[in-house]
Amino acid sequence: MIERLVVGGAALVVGLAIGWTVHGVTRYGTNTETITTFQDWRTACPAATAKDANCEIVQDILDGKTRNEVARIAYLRDKGKPALGVTLPLGVLLEPGMGISFGTDAPKTTPYRTCTAAGCVAEFMIDDKLQASLDAGKEGKLVFAGPDGKPLGIPLSLKGFAEAERAYRSNEAKRSSWFWRML
Asked: pLDDT (tens digit, 9 = 90+) per residue, 75-134?
């Protein structure tokens, strides 16, 4: 009798594990794009079938009065390395580049990479110090020069960034590996 209970219990556990695995792998839609909002940030992931595309974490910074977009910041992968891409409207002074700072830290600066119809784009490669600033959740600021040469600052919220980053990492793992889809 005890043998039958042990064998039955083991079969039940094995069956549940197999069912959970099959359910996780089969319910993941490889053709489905996902967008999830986490306070001021959102994750956007292309379908898993889009092999050359990656997920990104995005924040659109809006003007408080007009509700027009004044900047867009995206946490993404550039050539396999994490980066922050910032798009500012056309009409910024290109020569000094732009900067980003968190808390009381001095701004980290970078030149603009290009300007398109959507705006001027700068990219910050994420090193350990910048990642630590993002993880600390301190409020940030984008700093750039307007067309008149005067420095301007736009506040950057990190509300929801930690949750969005966890979702980003999970989604990227699921997009690239069937093993993570079952979890």
From this structure: 988 777 889 999 998 888 888 889 999 888 888 999 999 999 989 999 999 999 888 888
Tell me how far the alpha carbon of residue 5 is from its chain's centroid: 49
**Percentage of residues of the chain with pLDDT beyond 70:** 85
Report d(CA 21, CA 177) in Å as an integer: 13
A 10 A CB-CB count for 87 gives 19
Task: Please indicate, yes or no, if residue 183 is contained in any of the structural domains.
Answer: no
| Helices and strands (DSSP H and E) totals, the chain | 4, 11
Residues 8 and 51 in one domain: no
Q: Which helix (H) or strand (E) holds 45?
A: strand 41-45
- 167 token code pair: 């979702």
Question: Do the beta carbons of residue 28 and residue 181 sit within 8 Å?
Answer: yes
> Domain range for residue 49?
34-175
Same domain membership, residue 45 and residue 20: no
Q: Is residue 181 part of a domain?
A: no
Integer Cα distance of 130 and 99 in angstroms: 12
**69's tokens:** 């977009």
Side-chain half-sphere of 171: how many Cα atoms within 13 Å? 25
Asked, for residue 106, whether it belongs to a domain, the answer is yes
Q: Do both 69 and 130 map to the same domain?
A: yes
